[in-house]
Specification:
6 helices, alpha/beta, 7-stranded mixed beta sheet, single chain
């Protein structure tokens, strides 16, 4: 598995309140800015990697888009499916591994991810990007937001597979994560992609004695 299955299933199954109900603003902006105005919404296909409990796809489906999502947690996907059913909406929501996406070639106009690339090792990220390139349509757009190596939680050197484990510093207090520098991103998207935009986002807690910062990238890439 490219993503650490047991970690996320434990989070969702043991924490009933760990649910996101509404979409993230950057996802809303990405979809509305880039969905073709010349194609009907129900003909525009959108995929989310790491869809969790489906908050982003719930929004997109309500707006009339054709949506699909994949997450490693069975509990999260079951919650998302029930919410879709209760609200009378349709979505192709699956449990699976990002390194082997269960979708056909050239299936999606837009793909987005809010950090899944940082929750896998070096090879997992390579495999995931390769799979996104396979399932996205030519000229399609991929938005991703991996963690930055300027984050306060990147406080020591990663292991050989690119992961920092047992993080106990900064904002990201988790079992493992990967942090990307600018060259890491350029290398990851070297073949078959063109950067349309690349932002570095830093959120610093100035009231914290340590002034910890959560830093991440927000990239939009075009399949070429």
């Amino acid at each position: 598995m490219a993503i650490f299955e047991s970690n996320w299933e434990k989070i969702y199954s043991e924490n009933p309140d760990y649910r996101s109900w509404y979409p993230w603003s950057e996802v809303v902006t990405f979809i509305f800015r880039n969905a073709s105005k010349s194609i009907r919404r129900e003909e525009t296909s959108i995929l989310e990697l790491g869809c969790g409990t489906g908050n982003n796809l719930w929004f997109a489906a309500r707006e009339g888009f054709r949506v699909s999502g994949i997450d490693i947690s069975k509990t999260a996907v079951e919650f998302a499916r029930k919410r879709f059913t209760d609200d009378g909406m349709v979505g192709d929501l699956r449990v699976g591994d990002f390194s082997q996406l269960p979708f056909g070639d050239n299936s999606f106009d837009l793909v987005f991810d809010r950090g899944s690339l940082s929750l896998t090792n070096r090879q997992g990220a390579i495999d995931c990007v390769r799979e996104v390139r396979r399932v996205i349509k030519p000229n399609g757009l991929f938005q991703c937001g991996p963690f930055s190596d300027r984050d306060s939680s990147f406080y020591r050197s990663p292991d050989n597979d690119g992961l920092v484990r047992g993080i106990k510093v900064g904002v990201l207090l988790c079992e493992q994560a990967r942090f990307f520098g600018l060259q890491d991103l350029r290398d990851l998207f070297r073949d078959g992609w063109k950067f349309e935009s690349l932002q570095h986002i830093e959120e610093t807690d100035f009231l914290s004695p340590a002034r910890v910062s959560h830093c991440r990238w927000l990239a939009v890439l075009r399949a070429i």
